[in-house]
Amino acid sequence: MATERNGADGMSAVRRAWLRELGVERLWNLPGAAAPAAAPELAPAAEVPVAPPQSPVRESVATVPAVEPERAEPVALVQEIPMQELPAPAAMPADPEQAWAALQDEVRDCVACGLCKGRTQTVFGTGSPKARWLLVGEAPGEQEDKQGAPFVGRSGKLLDSMLASIARSRQHDVFIANVIKCRPPGNRDPLPEEVARCSPYLMRQISLINPEMILVLGRFAAQTLLETDARIGSLRGKVHSLSVAGRKVPVVVSYHPAYLLRSPAEKVKAWQDLQLALSVGRPGN
After folding, report:
1. For position 95, what pLDDT does the model report?
2. Crossing angle of helices 13-22/267-279, nearest 10°?
3. How far is CA 211 from CA 100, 109, 186, 219, 279, in A?
4. What is the residue extent of each domain of the chain?
5. Could you state, in chain order, the average pLDDT of each consecutive group of 10 residues for the chain (285 residues)?
6. How far, in Å, CA of 240 to CA of 222, rounded?
7. Which of 142, 166, 223, 282 has its CA 20 to 30 A from that of 11?
C-alpha cells in the first residue's frame, strides 16, 4: 500500500482535510501552531466531600465576532481550584468490569425522574472505559435518544472531525458521556431535580474511567461539572481541576459542536481549546 505523501509543510492531505472542516487550516500553518504548549503545573487539589451539583444558571452564549486565525491570541493557562471530590473506585465493586456492567444496567433501568417516561432508551455513553480522555456533553437530543449514542448527526460528525484533527477517535481514544442520560422533552435544559438524580451516574463513570483529561463541551455541562454559574466564555481557555480518587484530573471547557455549527467563526477558539487539552495531558498521550 502506498504511503501518504506529506506537503512541504509536513501536513498530510487527510490532516489538512480535517483542519479545513474545523475552519482552522490557516492557523495550523502558523509557525509553531501545531506544537502543544508545555503542560502547566496545576494547583494542589483540595479534598472536598461529594455534593450534588448546584442548579445551573441558564445563560445564552453571546456570539463573538469572527476571529482571523493569524491574529488569534495565545490561550492563557489559568489555574483554578478543583471543585469537588469524586467517589473513589474502591467504594465500588472490586472488579472494574463488573462495576462498569452494573452501572450500565442501572442506567438502562433508571426511573429516578420523570424523563424516563418520554425516552426511547437511555444514552449511557460510547467509547472504551479505559480511554485516556473523557468528553462530557449535556443531554441526549432526538437522534441520540433513537440511536442510544451521544453526539450523532451533524454535531457528531463535527465532533469526530475535531477529534481526528488531533489524531483521536471516539472508537479508541476517548469515552463520551452526557450529564443527563435521558432526552429532556423538546431538547430543553434539564431541570435541577433531574440533574440531582442523574449526575451521580456521571460521577461514577468518571471514577471508574479515571481519565487523564476531561474535555467538557457546552455551557450546561461545564456549569454542572464545575458547580458554577459562570459563562462559558470565562470558563474556556483555562485549566480547571477535578479530584478523582485523590488524583488531580485536568478539565478543559470548550463549546458544544451544535453551537459551533451555528457560529462557525468560533471554531478557531475550539481549536485553541483542543490544543490546550493536548498540552496538559500526560507525556505520550
Report:
1. 86
2. 120
3. 14, 26, 32, 21, 15
4. 75-279
5. 50 59 50 40 41 39 40 40 42 80 96 95 95 95 95 94 94 94 93 93 94 95 93 95 86 97 96 94 49
6. 11
7. 282
- Residue 225 C-alpha cell reads as 461539572
Q: What is the pLDDT of residues 140-168, one digit of tens each?
A: 999 999 999 999 999 999 999 999 999 99
> Rounded to whole angstroms, how far apart are CA atoms 274 and 73?
15
Cβ atoms of 203 and 87 within 8 Å: the answer is yes
Q: Cα separation of 197 and 52, whole Å? A: 9
Instruction: State which amino acid sits at residue 16.
Output: R
* 260 membership: H or E segment, kind and range: helix 257-262
Distance of alpha carbon 186 from alpha carbon 134, whole angstroms = 27
- Cα–Cα distance, 162 to 256 (Å, whole number): 11
Q: Which fold has domain 75-279?
A: Uracil-DNA Glycosylase, subunit E (3.40.470)
Quote the pTM value. 0.70
The amino acid at 270:
A
By CB atoms closer than 10 A (0-12, 13-18, 19+), residue 172 is: exposed
**In terms of residues, how long is the chain?**
285
φ, ψ of residue 247 to 5 degrees: the values are -115, 135
Determine the Cα angle at 189 with ends 148 and 115, to 5°: 50
